[in-house]
Design a protein that fits this description.
By secondary structure, the protein is mainly beta. The chain folds into two domains: 4-99, Immunoglobulin-like (Sandwich), CATH 2.60.40.10; 115-131 and 167-255, Thrombin, subunit H (Beta Barrel). It is 12% helix and 35% strand. The protein contains two helices and 13 strands. The protein has helices at 101-120, 180-190; strands at residues 4-13, 17-25, 31-38, 46-52, 57-60, 73-80, 86-91, 125-130, 171-177, 197-203, 213-216, 222-231, 239-246. The strands form three sheets. A six-stranded antiparallel beta barrel has the order 8-9-10-13-12-11. A four-stranded antiparallel β-sheet has the order 4-3-6-7, with no helix packed on it. A three-stranded antiparallel β-sheet has the order 1-2-5. It binds zinc ion.
């Protein structure tokens, strides 16, 4: 499969630094990632971190510019894990003085304050986010190796991802259901939204994409992400709104995360 970087998101992590996140396809355990940073797209580049192939993002806490007047530039490299050859390389956008990230930092701080206040009122929920890999070997237990068509719904080998080792390391996150009464009204009036669907509001970390699975940590309920809309002035994500569909009990995805000990994590 072709290796491809679909997106390289940079956004502000108040009091911590910068979130750098990517949507990468076609990487496998024979690769590793390297994240670098520079003040200019011409370099020189400083090493931020070497990362495993199945990592989706990194918090850069050491970058200059904590006042967020300007943003550095990050570069993501995909390396052959054996030879160290660079197979793919891509820079983040530049956020110059005309597009000061400082105003976006303020918007993110305000969104975080709302989240913190709702959390104080026990209105938020904790989730684990799972991303399926879109590469690697097809599952031998539930996919016809010749026609590449899946057979059978519930597979304990790949937990429904249709790939061997099909779910990456989960990421913990927090969100709140932003539908309440309005969604019930929408259902009654248009009949468009299904009974099993909900709208979740969350921050810019981690970046969620269609097809991801969320597990509510304490309720152990699983949701599939149907679509994501992002508030992203100047291309920096401030917040995300997810349309979720409840995963039916007999689907293999409902086993994701059940083995995790999350009691006081
Ligand atoms: Zn399978």
């Amino acid at each position: 499969m072709m290796m491809q970087l679909d997106a390289l998101h940079v956004t502000i992590a108040p009091r911590r630094g910068w979130y750098v996140q990517w949507e990468l396809r076609g990487v496998s355990p024979s690769h590793r990632l390297r994240l670098e940073r520079s003040a200019s797209s011409e370099g020189p580049w400083d090493l931020v971190s070497e990362l495993a192939w199945n990592v989706y993002g990194h918090i850069d806490e050491l970058a200059e510019g904590r006042d967020f007047w300007i943003a550095p530039i990050w570069r993501l490299l995909v390396l052959d894990d054996n030879t160290g050859d660079v197979l793919l390389e891509s820079n983040s956008e530049t956020y110059g003085s005309t597009r000061s990230p400082r105003f976006i930092a303020e918007a993110i701080r305000q969104h975080d304050m709302v989240m913190t206040r709702l959390h104080g009122q026990a209105l938020t929920r904790d989730f684990m986010l799972f991303k399926s890999v879109t590469w690697g070997s097809l599952c031998y237990a539930c996919v016809d190796q010749i026609t590449k068509q899946p057979f059978g719904g519930d597979c304990g080998v790949c937990n429904g991802s249709r790939r061997i080792g099909g779910w990456g390391a989960p990421m913990r996150m927090r969100g709140y259901f932003a539908d309440g009464e309005s969604i019930l009204t929408a259902r009654q009036q248009t009949g468009r939204m299904q009974e099993s669907q909900r709208r979740l509001q969350m921050s810019s970390w981690p970046i969620a994409t269609e097809g991801n699975i969320l597990m509510e940590v304490f309720q152990r309920v699983h949701w599939r992400v149907l679509n994501v809309s992002r508030t992203a002035p100047n291309g920096m994500v401030v917040s995300q709104s997810l349309l979720l569909d409840r995963v039916p009990q007999d689907h293999a995805e409902t086993r994701l995360g059940l083995e995790l000990d999350l009691a006081d994590a």
